[in-house]
Design brief:
Radius of gyration: 23 Å
Shape: globular
Largest sheet: 8 strands, mixed
Number of strands: 19
Structural class: alpha/beta
Helix content: 25-40%
Distance between the termini: 15 Å
Strand content: 15-25%
Number of helices: 14
Strand order of the largest sheet: 1-15-14-13-12-8-10-9
């Protein structure tokens, strides 16, 4: 496998193509309904005076994201509701009034969900946070604004983030009848990247021992946090089943506290907002269509990434945090909560020299397309969360996306925007290479001047949960002879081959992990040392 970090950031980079700025693969209606989401259509979206026309994005119309410090001020919330009353709505913080004191000033900036409700005295109205947000922006403009412009500037929709290039989940797609943008454009079933129905992975066997990992390392191991679909059983990590967490020393760990916080936030909003719950760190359920039984599009995605880290940097530990559903969807608030809690964990580890809680790298194989046409550093709420980690010296690696476009895909597109006060290195965005000798760019990979690294992301072989089975069967069997053709969704051998920038990003993260090991003793974790070590590791590559 190949990893290439780009020193000249503009070399051979495609510029943004204006003709594709609003193109976005259309998620199926069933997936949108499952997560209470819709696609923002620039042709029909309302726009406040002085605001630019939006680009396409996917968002949850029944909810805003607002930093929780603003919600502690009842006067601010009252002013917002006074404006929203004009369209028959009111805003209510998910889980009630947030009176608890944040553990740090940074957590006080944590964006939390605020649910939109129809007022009892209002006529029937469509609940749409985009329309409500335009009204709030109008009220915060002009010479005598009704609302504080600073507060309104920090209010945003909750986006859906995606990991996968193939939106599956409806019978005619998973049964191979085609019709999605990727299939009709040659990237789906029948193309060199489209191997099976519903997803582009297939089960394989690997006749190799697990990569060697020392039992008693000379130094502290680098920790790579993977925010993804969670984990499943696999012998490489000492997981025979789903009865307990990964054993100590397995190279795979989980964060029950962060996982519980994500579930609590989802439970608080799930009473009125269609929400799929992430109950723990296990990648389940495996099927998005129980009556069909196909393996869901992103089942095994997180464990596959953990296996890439194990292969490329065996001495590293993977900290798996589940923020992605098995259909490849993540809620923005869940991802932001995980990032803020990780930053708070690192901050405490640095201040108190708690090396066991240190996180060195965050690997993100997910993203979304921002509706704002301007290249802004603090798009949505992501900029502040990522900046916090960068300022602590944590290396943040993000996949560039799989839509074969130059449109900026966040958080990877932060790579060319200064965040974190110039402390640690900026976001490292990673595009996908093919596995050939020339390491050509994969046809599905996004690119642009904001893509700063390239790594093998096609034809990648890695670990896959051994207990995953689908309903697809061998298409030919010889009764009585024990002979049949290949079963495309029996993963009992524990390995698969898969394509995507999702797998290029953790490969680059693993290379950074190896560089950290070579840069000096990892036992010292004060902020100044961590920042210096991050720069040394990146510059060595």
């Amino acid at each position: 496998m190949v990893v290439r970090f780009v020193r000249d950031e503009t070399a051979e980079a495609a510029t943004e193509d204006a003709s594709t700025l609003n193109e976005l693969p259309a998620p199926p209606r069933q997936l949108l309904d499952r997560h209470g989401a819709r696609v923002l259509d620039p042709a029909t979206a309302v726009v406040a005076a002085g605001q630019p026309a939006p680009r396409t994005t996917v968002y949850r119309p029944g909810v805003f994201l607002i930093p929780q410090r603003y919600l502690r001020d009842q006067q601010t919330l009252g002013a917002i509701n006074g404006v929203l009353a004009r369209i028959g709505l009111y805003a209510d913080p998910a889980g009630g009034d947030p009176k608890e004191t944040a553990r740090s000033r940074q957590l006080d900036e944590l964006p939390v969900r605020v649910l939109l409700h129809v007022r009892e005295d209002a006529d029937p109205v469509v609940v749409d946070c985009w329309k409500a947000l335009q009204l709030l922006r109008s009220a915060a403009s002009g010479e005598r604004p009704e609302l504080d412009p600073e507060v309104v500037a920090r209010i945003s929709p909750e986006h859906l983030l995606f990991t996968t290039p193939v939106f599956g989940g409806v019978p005619w797609e998973t049964s191979g009848l085609g019709g999605t943008p990727w299939e009709t454009s040659g990237f789906g079933a029948g193309s060199s990247y489209g191997r099976t129905r519903g997803a582009n992975r297939i089960p394989v066997t690997l006749a190799a021992a697990p990569p060697y990992r020392s039992e008693k390392p000379e130094h502290r191991r680098p920790v790579i946090a993977v925010l993804d679909t969670g984990i499943g059983p696999h012998p490489w990590f000492g997981l025979a089943d789903r009865s307990g967490p990964p054993p100590a020393g397995s190279g795979l760990a989980v964060a029950p506290g962060i996982q519980a916080a994500i579930l609590q936030a989802e439970l608080a909003s799930g009473t009125t907002l269609p929400t799929q719950l992430l109950s723990d760190y296990w990648d389940a359920p495996t099927t998005g269509q129980p009556l069909i039984g196909d393996v869901d599009t992103d089942t095994g995605h997180g464990l596959f990434i953990a296996g890439i880290v194990r292969q490329a940097c065996p001495e590293a530990d993977t900290l798996a945090i589940r923020v992605v559903h098995s259909d490849g969807v993540a809620y923005e608030a869940d991802v932001l909560l995980a990032l803020h809690l990780l930053a708070d964990r690192v901050r405490a580890a640095q201040a108190e020299n708690r090396t066991d809680d240190m996180v060195d790298i965050v690997s993100l194989s997910l993203g979304y397309y921002e509706e704002n046409p301007a290249d802004i550093a603090y798009t949505g709420q992501f900029g502040a969360a990522v900046a916090d980690l960068l300022g602590l010296g944590v290396l943040v690696v993000a996949a560039a996306g799989n839509d074969a476009t130059t449109r900026r895909f966040y958080p990877a597109a932060f790579a060319d925007q200064p965040l974190g006060g110039g402390s640690g290195p900026q976001v490292i965005s990673v595009g996908a290479l093919n596995p050939d000798v020339t390491a050509s760019k994969a046809l599905f990979s996004n690119e642009g001047p904001w893509v700063r690294a390239w790594a093998t992301g096609a034809g990648v072989v890695s670990t896959y949960p051994t207990d995953v089975r689908g309903t697809a069967a061998a298409d030919h069997e010889v009764p009585g002879y024990g002979r049949n053709s290949f079963d495309p969704d029996d993963y009992s051998a524990g390995f698969a081959v898969w394509d995507g920038t999702s797998f290029a990003a953790p490969l680059a993260a693993a290379e950074l992990g190896k560089a950290l090991l070579q840069s000096g003793d990892l036992a010292t974790v004060d902020r100044e040392t961590v920042v210096k070590r991050a720069w040394t590791a990146l510059n060595s590559l």
